[in-house]
Amino acid sequence: MTSSSAASRKALSKIACNRLQKELVEWQVNPPAGFKHKVTDNLQRWVIEVIGAPGTLYANEKYQLQVDFPEHYPMEAPQVIFLHPAPLHPHIYSNGHICLDILYDSWSPAMTVSSVCISILSMLSSSTAKQRPPDNDRYVRNCRNGRSPKETRWWFHDDKV
Amino acid sequence: MGSEEDMHDANDVQSVEDDFYTGETGMGSEDDDYNFGDNYSDDSEDVTSHRQQQNYTILSEADIRQHQGENINRVSTVLSIPRYAACILLRHYNWSISRVHDEWFADEEHVRKAVGLLERTVELSNARELTCGICFENYPCGRMSSASCGHPFCGACWRGYISTSVSDGPGCLMLRCPDPSCGAAVGQNMIDVLTTSEDKEKYSRYLLRSYVEDNRKIKWCPAPGCEFAVEFVIGSGSYDVCCSCSYSFCWNCAEEAHRPVDCATVAKWILKNSAESENMNWILANSKPCPKCKRPIEKNQGCMHITCTPPCKFEFCWLCLGPWSEHGERTGGFYACNRYEAAKQEGAYDESERRREMAKNSLERYTHYYERWATNQSSRQKALADLHSMQTEKLEKLSDTQSQPESQLKFIIEAWLQIVECRRVLKWTYAYGFYLPEHEHAKRQFFEYLQGEAESGLERLHQCAEKELQVYLDAEGPMADFNDFRTKLAGLTSVTKNYFENLVRALETGLKDVGTSNNQATCSKGSSSKSLGNKSKSGKIKAVAGSSSGSGAPSRSFDDGNLWSCDRCTYANPRSTTTCQMCEHHK
C-alpha cells in the first residue's frame, strides 16, 4: 500500500546510513523486549515483529511494524505503520497509521527505532478497549492513495493511552 | 501531548487577545502592567518619539532591534542571568518586561522549568571521548557541545538539528536539547556558535519578528511591502495611526483607518460586503445609465456632479440621478442625496417598494448604503491619484501659466489632502449609517443632517478643486481672477474641514447630544453638551435636531424663520447672528 511512496523516496544520506548501521548493531546486541527485527538487506525499510506484552489486551498477539527511513534521518522522523492486520486500538487506524506524537511533531533526532518501538508497545499495553479510533472510516477513506501518515496533521487527543 | 508549557502558552495568547478587543474599556490591567517600578516601565521610548503628542511610534527594523536589545539587557541585569536566558524569558512572556519580573520573582523555579532554564549548569563530562546522542559516533570532548544540561552532541548533528528546526518556522525560538527526556533551552548564544551563517540570519529574523508579532503593543504596518512596525500606547484613545510609508490604518483591527466609526461596525460591514456584493461592487460603484439618454456611464472623476457626453450633455447627480440644476433648490436649499429616507419618500424607490418583499427591502437599504460607501471609496482613490499628479506635474504647470511661485500654490495641495481625508471619513459614515438603528429617529436625523452638511461641503470643494481649477490649468497665460479662485478654494477647504470635524466629533460621542436635547427629563446630563465644545455650535445644532424631530418629516426644516442659510457654505445659522458660524461669511 505504501510501497509506492517508499520507493519514490530518496536514498539515505551518508549520515543516515552510518547512524542506521549503528542502530542495527545495537539492536542485535541488545534488542528491545517483545520485538524481533526481520533481517533484510534493505537498510531503508525495517520490518519488525511485535508481540503483545503478557497481561495486556494484546498478550501473545503478533503484529508487524514497517519502518521507512527518510533521506535525512534522524533529523527527520521515520515513517512507522502497522502492516495489515493492524491491532485494534483507539489510536491505530485500520490502514496501519498510528497517532503518536513522537512519530511526528515531537520527534527528536536523539530518539531511535528501539525507543520508538518501546513507546508503541507501551501505547498498546495501556489500552483498555480494543476498538478503532472514532474517525477511522473517514480518515482511512482520505488516505486511499497511499498517503503517508506524515502528511497528516495529527491532533494528539489524549496522552493516557 | 499538550505539555504544560503549551497549555500555558495558549492561555497567554488568549488573555492577550481578550484585552486587545475590549477597546477603551477594561484597561485597568494594563495600568498594573506599568506599575512594576518607575525605572522599568515597558515603554522603551526613544528620543525621537517625543516630538509630538502622538500615542504611537513608528519603528524601523533598526529601531526594533535596538528596543529588543535594550529590553533583553534590562532583564538580564535585573535578574542577573545571561542575555540569551533573558531573551528566552522575554519571548515566553510576549516581550513584557513587567510580566517577566512578576513571574520570576513570584516563582523562579516554576518559570525556569517552563522555559527550560536549568538552575545548575551541567558541564560536559571531561572524559577523553564522548558519544554524540544523535549520530552515536565517538568524538574527543573538545568537538562536542551541549546546552546547560550537559547532553553531548557533535557539531554536525547540532547543525542539522538547528537547521531542521529553523526551516520549520518560528518554533525554533523555543528550541530545546535534542534529548527527549531533557527540556533544557537552546538559546541564541548556541545558535550563533553552532550553525551556518544562513541559519543564524534566519533565526535572528524570527527573533525580530517575534518582538513585533508576539508583543501586544506592536504591530506591523499592514500595507503591502511596508517594513515598519507601529508601537501603540494602549488605552490612549484613537487607534488611527499613520505609518511612515504614508498608509493610514487602525492599529486595533488593522483595517484601513476608519475613524470615527468603531472597529466592530467596520468588521460587520466588511463581512457583509464580502458576502453580498462581490459582483455588485464594480457595477454599482462605477457605472450607471444616464438618466436621460440611458447610455451607460462610467464614473471616472471624483465628484458627484456628472455631465453626460455630447450630444446629451445632461448634468445630473451621480447618487440620486436627479438633474444637477435642481440640487440645492428642490432639496430645500440643501444637499440631501445622503439620505435613504429622503430618497424613499421622494418616490425614487416607490415602484419596487410595493412589489418587493421585506427581504428585498433590506437588500435595497443595504444597496443604498453600500453604493455610497463604495462610491466614496473610489472617489478617494481618484482623489489620491489627482493629488499625486498635482504634486508631480500639474502644480509646476500651473505655476508657469499663472506666474505664481509654487510656494503660493500650497492651498491646492491642502485642498486635495482635505478631500482625500474627507472621502475616507465620509465613506465610513455610510457603514455607520447602515447600522444606526432605524427607530432612533432623532439620532438618525441628527446624523444625516451632519453627514449631509459635510457631504455637500465636500462636493463643493471637490468640484472646485477638480473642475474649476482646470480652467486655470488650461489657460494660456495668467488670469485676473486667480486670486478669487485661491480665496474660494482655501475657504472651501477650511469650511469642509470644520464640517467634518463636527461630524467626527458627533459620531465619536455616539450622537449623545441628541438624547439630551430631546429628552427634557434628563437635563442633568445637560453638561454633556460641552463635548461638542467649541463656540456655540453645539447648542445650535441641538436646537435644529430637536425642532425637526417633532415634525417627523425627513426634509430639512430650517427655513422656519429661526435660521438662515449661509450663501457661501449653506450652514444653518441662528437668526440672531449676522456672520456665519461655520465660515464667518457675512449674511
From TrEMBL, chain A:
One of its GO terms (biological process) is protein polyubiquitination. Residues 15-161 form the UBC core domain. InterPro entries: Ub_conjugating_enzyme, UBC, UBQ-conjugating_AS, UBQ-conjugating_enzyme/RWD. CDD domains: UBCc_UBE2W (cd23808). GO terms for molecular function: ATP binding; ubiquitin conjugating enzyme activity. Accepts the ubiquitin from the E1 complex and catalyzes its covalent attachment to other proteins. This is E2 ubiquitin-conjugating enzyme. It comes from Musa acuminata subsp. malaccensis (Wild banana).
Automatic annotation (TrEMBL), chain B:
Residues 128-341, 132-176 form the RING-type domain. It is an enzyme of class 2 (transferase). Residues 559-587 form the RanBP2-type domain. Pathway: Protein modification; protein ubiquitination. GO terms for biological process: protein ubiquitination. It catalyses: [E2 ubiquitin-conjugating enzyme]-S-ubiquitinyl-L-cysteine + [acceptor protein]-L-lysine = [E2 ubiquitin-conjugating enzyme]-L-cysteine + [acceptor protein]-N(6)-ubiquitinyl-L-lysine. Residues 29-46 have a biased composition (Acidic residues). SUPFAM superfamilies: Ran binding protein zinc finger-like, RING/U-box. Keywords: Metal-binding, Repeat, Transferase, Ubl conjugation pathway, Zinc, Zinc-finger. One of its GO terms (molecular function) is zinc ion binding. Residues 524-556 have a biased composition (Low complexity). Its cofactor is Zn(2+). Its EC number is 2.3.2.31. Residues 1-53, 516-557 are annotated as: Disordered. InterPro entries: Ariadne (IPR045840), ARIH1-like_UBL (IPR048962), E3_UB_ligase_RBR (IPR031127), IBR_dom (IPR002867), TRIAD_supradom (IPR044066), Znf_RanBP2 (IPR001876), Znf_RanBP2_sf (IPR036443), Znf_RING (IPR001841). Might act as an E3 ubiquitin-protein ligase, or as part of E3 complex, which accepts ubiquitin from specific E2 ubiquitin-conjugating enzymes and then transfers it to substrates. Belongs to the RBR family. Ariadne subfamily. This is RBR-type E3 ubiquitin transferase. It comes from Ensete ventricosum.
